[in-house]
Amino acid sequence: MDKLKHLILLFVLINTQLTIAQQVITLDETVFIHINTTTLVSGETLFYKLYCIKNTDKTPSLVSKLAYIELIDNNNNSVFKDKIFLENATGEGDYFIPTTLQTGNYKLIAYTSWMLNLSTSKMFQIDIKIINPYQTNETGFSTNKLNLKNTDSVTIAKNTTYQESSANQKSGIALNKKTFANREKVTVKIDPSVTTNGSGSYSLSVRKTDELPTINQTTANEFAKISTTTNPDKLDVRKKIILPELRGEMISGRIVSAKESDNLQNITIALSLPGKSPAFKIVETDEMGHFIFNLNKAYYTPNIVIQVINEHSDNYTIELDKPNTPDYSKLNIQPDFNLSASLKQTLLDRSITNQIENAYYQRSKDSISTLNESNVFYFPLAKEYILDDFTRFPTLKENITEITKELYYKNKNNNYSLHVNDYSIYPQLPEPALVLIDGLLLQNVNELFNYNMKNIYKISVIAGTYYIGPRFFNGLISFTTTKNQFTTDIKENYILNPLIQRPSIKKQYNKIDYSDIKINERIPDYRNQLSWIPAADLNKEISFYTSDVKGTFEVTIEGFTETGKAISLKETFNVK
User: What keywords does the record list, in alphabetical order (predicted)?
Assistant: First the structure.
């Protein structure tokens, strides 16, 4: 008997330990940002590259698929936020500094949703100085508004250390020469031994060294040294934990009903992101009416529609969860910002050159990277009817009769429904089909019967039982418009068109080319930022052209090899 008691006690103890162990999980993720400068004047652009890595060994972290960058002012207000869809644990973006931002100190912070379980102090932070010379009264340029003092209150960053390393040829960066003329080609080669001939992810910035007060940003090398820990952070699952966006962007919320008797569990919720490459997903609610959608790729369309699919849909409304954000009050942002009166002419010159550059924006305009258009979710099952291959008919009824013969419609009390004939069964199932137009779910198809069919490019049809998520439909009917710009006039309480920030679209940053000296020879070029390459290939020669600006320029390369080795390279050259 005693032996049995001991066995039972041992069993309880083992299970208790297992339960405690399961209540603790680890968080081994952090981010690093490389930016082009820490001091910006209104009208300039902040460029940034984000690396999502493991805190322990600095190899890529594949936990989070999205990251966030915010610019916080000294009143703890977020003045800019970017959502970045990560590819191979990296992402990039830019922010044009508007004249609406006041002169002052700011914090640029970066994090993933998974990192929000940690304290704000563990998020990557960069001190940013923004100078707005347009903070004026009626007289124009205002020294009073900029707090120009007789003495410098902030040390201007020096570059002697970089020049020394260049002189000793230890920078790892080889330039074709050290001094260049205006609009001359500069070539950059990287010593292969720096990256140990391995692949990785790197960003390159070439910018004029600043005469304005600036702060040296943390390099990848410094970040790797100060943030490495022997153990990842531990989280207690008994507390509320913010889930990582492991499978992609998460959109969550709940349904509510005015009637307490209404069921909230297992109610079907549909998400539509209409467009050329639409997304369509269906989930069911839990016992409290909560739902979560996961988007496993970046969808950039701002048009989002969430609907309740239920015979009593009118009883429900949809509420989205507010996005999780850091505690901005924990950021240490200095309130004071003083400048030397001697910098007035420098600021005036910088403002003029910025205005000239922005006036010729079209010459150096960046382009949007080609978006990867994916097949629709029902590809390749559907039979397609491209209407231009047939005689065009103006109404849906005529097209159903003359072209898409698998389709038929019913009309009950002036309410239409669309169906697909499944010739493999008899009699036909009474349930309607899933009807989409440009990826948008249409529960009320009445407006399709008044829609001008000249705007329809094709009709796709799938016969038979069609499953999507937890729901099945009696076939699928998808309409694709010529411009993918269908909008519905239907407004119901069970349909929500939320404003959800979309991931930023990647850009191909413009490269000025003066290989033909006559091109743009009469257009001024006052670029302080000569090059920004967020995905630099260090195994190839990199080139760019100088501008009409003279002075000392700095080449900065930051990144990590695939094995977690931090790379930080700097070199300077002169333009005379």
Answer: Signal
The band of 227, judged by pLDDT with boundaries at 50, 70 and 90, is: low
434 and 392 Cβ atoms separated by less than 8 Å: no
Q: Using only the alpha carbons of the chain, give its radius of gyration.
A: 30
- Contact at 8 Å (CB) between 304 and 259? no
Nearest to 313 by CA among 269, 252, 273, 281: 269
Cβ proximity of 339 and 146 under 8 Å: yes
Count the domains in the chain: 3
Q: What is the pLDDT of residue 370?
A: 59
* Mean of per-residue pLDDT scores for the chain: 86
Contacts with 129 (C-beta within 8 Å, 6 or more apart), sequence order = 38, 39, 40, 104, 105, 106, 154, 212, 213, 214, 215, 337
- Please name the residue that has the structure tokens 């039972």: 8
Predicted structure pTM score: 0.87
Query: Is the predicted pLDDT of residue 13 greater than 50, yes or no?
Result: no
Among candidate residues 304, 309, 318, the one with its CA nearest the CA of residue 274: 304
pLDDT tens string 325-377: 999 999 999 887 778 888 888 888 898 888 888 888 776 667 676 566 678 88
Residue 20 located in a structural domain: no
- The answer on 390 and 364 residing in a single domain is no
Its domain, for residue 111, covers 27-233+326-371+507-575
Is 8's pLDDT higher than 60? Answer: no
User: Could you tell me if residue 7 is inside a domain?
Assistant: no
The Cα-based distances of 468 to 268, 291, 322, 382, 434 in angstroms read: 11, 16, 27, 14, 10
Same domain, 307 and 421: no
